[in-house]
Specification:
32 strands; four-stranded antiparallel beta sheet; elongated; alpha+beta
Length: 709
């Protein structure tokens, strides 16, 4: 059961939810399938007031018996009728027909006798045992009405005559002759027996069934022209009056093909009130209901909505409205209650319960208890399964061709779209939306955990800091002026304390929660370089553009030399490493025996880092060139793989200085290997001989000597 709250009135949709499909009982392992529905929350919470209250395709008409115990429904496809017994909340029987039903009428107080008008000009008479008789009328029928006082069955259709069939005598009587081109609706006043016929040309005629003569008529189109001239013209040229119903003895309601409902007093030609559905669709049905305190309400319905109006005391005032999920064909109201049943262009016939109209019927008295329980639960909105989108969003997603189809439901300046279809479109138009949503939720979660830490809170927010700063400055200036005015002898005691509190720089930045997201949501970030901002603030826009260009120029200057600087830094760093190694090796030859003057280090980690010195590499060579040099023999490759990076760089530099880049001279190779071995051994002595006076001096290196060529 779904609950909607429209115009301050609660409406309970009793037939909402899922039902079992037609093929469910025909499949195998039905017990296992029904067992699985135990865990379906939507199916478990459904309310099925009347069992099998549906048709295979759609329902056309509904009628409640005079005793209020039975409901007669006609639907398709295949054309059939169903009789429901309300005391048992189930279907009593169903019968099939040769053609679709247009209208139906009970001939007695219960289900035993009723008539069905078919669209192929036949009238079927049904009894308790089944079809009793059928006969044919001269013209195609549109509506039917049974006069209980005279046992006359009136049939109106595509003719100016209203056919009269007397069921007591079993023969056709003289028809009622009218000036109408066609009869769309017929109604009888149960108080004085007057019969009203609504026609195509916007006129309403009333007949006395005792003599079959016309006693009165109304020009509805002319009355409507005072309110809406275009609608009046459509009524004259189009279908005209589509529905008519009697209220009290002197009240009659008329529904037009333009979607207007006019309320008349039979003693006056002018309407009491005119009500507009604003859909421009023909009115399907009008029903008067006696409400609480003797108030007479009017229910009118078109294909889109059922509107419930107040009576004569509150003219043109809408009580509430009911929007069916499919196009509506017919509806009825159970007498002296708030139960509304509707036949729609859908598989299911829908039921609504409106407590403001009356109590629940006795055959479903438990609805009052259920509604009291639902009062404590959360209410849902009318469009709970729909998402509102604008025309610009549809064009941006590339689905503007859906406009005008059943996938979109026009509403105000946009459309309502099904949530499932909306998610499918979003997944195609923006496939990374969920990832951004996940990252944003994760970021907010991390910020919430960090909020519990001890931080130095800043008064300025992260979003729109400049605007927040300007607001706080304005508040501080305003507070200072008020204090100066107060000290200067202004009003003493009756300043607005609330304004002082709002103007306080130490108070909250946002005192109105409606503007809280302005300093929290990044979507409200002010872009000072946008075109819209430039129109509102031309001076600030120019300054913002200059700052952006300056930042961009600095970025280009830094980024333009980054590639060249990276190669240069790599070459300088590698050569400094080579220079350090060569310098250490040269100093080792002169200071090999001088170990007593060095300091002892207790910990290897406390050894001071080597100083960085520059090394002059041969012209045209960089660190990459030296590292890419390869040995010519397998033995040399093995020797190079055992050396460190520093030793390899030193070896390549020495080999280039001696003029042998391809390692062809064995003498030079041995000389370089011996020199590198000495450097490596000295490096080990400087690191590992703790307490023996080994290692470098505290000054950070050996004494400088001459560089060997």
């Amino acid at each position: 059961m779904k609950v909607s709250h429209i115009n301050g009135v609660k409406i309970y949709h009793c037939s909402a939810g899922k039902t079992l499909p037609q093929w469910f009982d025909n499949v195998r392992n039905v017990a296992a399938r029904k067992e699985s529905l135990r865990y379906n929350e939507a199916y478990r919470r459904r309310i099925e007031l009347i069992h099998d209250f549906h048709f295979p395709t759609a329902a056309n008409t509904l009628k409640i018996s005079p005793d209020g115990e039975f409901i007669l429904a006609c639907g398709t496809y295949k054309p059939q009728l169903k009789m429901y017994e309300l005391s048992q909340l189930s279907m009593k029987f169903e019968r099939h027909m040769d053609a679709q039903g247009v209208a139906c009428s009970f001939l007695g107080d219960d289900y035993r006798k009723f008539a069905m008008l078919r669209e192929d000009r036949f009238i079927e008479f049904h009894a308790q045992y089944g079809l009793h008789h059928k006969l044919r009328v001269p013209k195609f029928g549109r509506d039917m009405c049974y006069l209980r006082n005279s046992c006359d069955l009136l049939v109106g259709g595509a003719s100016s005559e209203i056919y009269r069939l007397n069921l007591f005598r079993g023969e056709f009587l003289a028809p009622f002759s009218s000036a109408l081109k066609g009869v769309n609706a017929i109604a009888e006043n149960r108080i004085h027996g007057l019969v009203a016929a609504a026609g195509e040309d916007g006129k309403l005629e009333c007949f006395d069934p005792r003599n079959g003569k016309r006693v009165a008529y109304l020009r509805v189109a002319e009355s409507l022209a005072r309110v809406d001239a275009r609608a009046a013209n459509d009524v004259k040229e189009g279908k005209g009056i589509s529905a008519v119903a009697f209220g009290s003895a002197l009240t009659i309601g008329v529904g037009t093909s333009s979607g207007h409902v006019l309320l008349y007093d039979l003693r006056a030609p002018a309407p009491l009130t005119c009500r507009d559905h604003r859909y421009g669709m023909p009115i399907k049905r009008l029903i008067f209901q006696q409400g609480k305190g003797g108030e007479e309400r009017l229910l009118s319905a078109d294909s889109k909505v059922i509107k419930i109006w107040h009576g004569e005391n509150k003219k043109n005032k809408l009580l509430t409205s009911i929007e069916p999920p499919a196009d509506l064909n017919d509806f009825v109201v159970y007498k002296d209650s708030g139960m509304v049943l509707a036949a729609c262009e859908a598989h299911r016939m829908h039921t609504w319960y409106v407590p403001a109209m009356g109590a629940a019927p006795k055959w479903c008295y438990y609805l009052d208890t259920l509604t009291e329980e639902l009062e404590e639960s959360r209410e849902t909105t009318v469009y709970e399964d729909y998402k509102f989108v604008t025309r610009e969003q549809l064009e941006q997603w590339g689905v503007a061709d859906l406009i005008g189809t059943e996938a979109l439901r026009p509403y105000m300046h946009g459309f309502f779209i099904d949530v499932k279809l909306y998610k499918r479109i979003q997944s195609v138009a923006d496939p990374y939306a969920y990832e951004r949503f996940y990252q944003e939720k994760l970021r907010k979660k991390i910020e919430e955990t960090r909020a519990s830490r001890i931080n130095i809170t800043s008064q300025l927010p992260k979003v729109n800091r400049k605007l927040a700063k300007a607001i706080l400055q304005h508040r501080s200036q305003r507070l200072a002026k008020k204090e100066a005015k107060k000290d200067g002898g202004g009003d003493d005691g009756n300043d607005n304390n609330d304004d002082d509190q709002k103007a306080s720089p130490n108070g909250k930045l946002v005192t109105d929660l409606r503007f809280k997201a302005l300093f929290e949501d990044e979507d409200f970030e002010i872009d000072e370089t946008s075109e819209h901002y430039s129109r509102l603030n031309p001076h600030r826009y120019a300054a913002a553009v200059k700052r952006a260009e300056a930042d961009e120029d600095e970025g280009m200057v830094d980024g333009g030399n980054s590639d060249a600087d990276s190669d240069e830094d790599l070459r300088i760093g590698a050569l400094s490493m080579l220079g350090k190694a060569e310098e250490n090796a040269m100093e080792m030859e002169h200071q090999q025996d001088d170990d007593s003057s060095s300091d002892n280090y207790d910990d290897e980690d406390n050894v001071p880092p080597p100083t960085t010195t520059m090394f002059n590499a041969p012209s045209g060579y960089s660190a990459r060139h030296l590292l890419e040099r390869k040995a010519s023999t397998q033995q040399q490759q093995q020797e190079l793989s055992e050396l460190t990076l520093e030793q390899r760089l030193r070896l390549h530099a020495d080999s280039n200085n001696y003029g042998d880049s391809d390692y062809k001279s064995s003498t030079q190779n041995k000389r370089a290997s011996t020199h590198i071995a000495k450097v490596d051994s000295e490096h080990r002595l400087g690191r590992k001989n703790k307490g023996k006076g080994g290692g470098r001096k505290k000054g950070g290196g050996f004494k400088k000597g001459k560089r060997r060529r």
